[in-house]
Design brief:
The protein has 180 residues and is α/β, with parallel strands linked by helices. It has 5 helices and 8 strands; from the N terminus they run E-H-E-H-E-H-E-H-E-E-E-H-E. The longest helix has 13 residues, at 94-106.
Length: 180
């Protein structure tokens, strides 16, 4: 667009996650950043808005929060002392999430806990054989119980819960950089 007309202004909508620890913009030189970045960006997360301020004028970064009705459920069901652990697993890091959950389920701290795994909606057919007795897969989040909440780092839900100061923890990996 910019090649066609210098007066064209572009807007971008950041619907996912962008943090200061994601490096894809850092590998571009300044000339290419101008090609890839829009003139104005609308972010749905305060964390992303702050990270974009390194690359764009703050006056060109706008915050438009959108929270689903699902968020209200998390306010009701969260309890950091519960013996039930609700793990919200990401799409792109599913295998890493599973390794983390299996390791946690064997940790003494979680010895008496039951894990309830909520898979990403796009994960339709997953073969999970030989899960221990204290790990179950659920299709819907029951809102009558209280849970400790564990969420994938790649889930925008994690960042929404953090924004709203709802108690939760993110899943950690041995082989990946923490993007928070």
């Amino acid at each position: 667009f910019r090649e066609i007309s210098k007066t064209v202004k572009t807007k971008g909508y950041q619907h996912g996650i962008f943090t200061k620890k994601l490096m894809w913009l850092d590998i571009l030189d300044n000339k290419n950043k101008k090609v890839y970045l829009p003139d104005i960006i609308i972010s749905n997360l305060q964390l992303s808005r702050k990270a974009y301020s390194k690359y764009l004028n703050k006056n060109n970064i706008f915050l438009k929060r959108t929270y689903s009705n699902e968020i209200k459920v998390f306010k009701k069901i969260t309890s950091k002392n519960s013996k039930k652990v609700l793990a919200i697993l990401g799409l792109h890091d599913f295998k890493d999430n599973m390794q983390s959950i299996i390791a946690l389920s064997k940790d003494k701290k979680y010895d008496k806990c039951k894990f309830f795994l909520k898979l990403h909606p796009k994960l339709k057919s997953v073969s999970l054989k030989r899960l221990s007795k204290n790990i179950r897969i659920i299709k819907k989040i029951p809102n009558k119980s209280k849970y400790q909440i564990l969420i994938s780092q790649s889930s925008s839900l994690l960042y929404n819960l953090m924004d709203l100061k709802i108690e939760c923890q993110h899943l950690k990996y041995n082989n990946k950089i923490n993007i928070l």
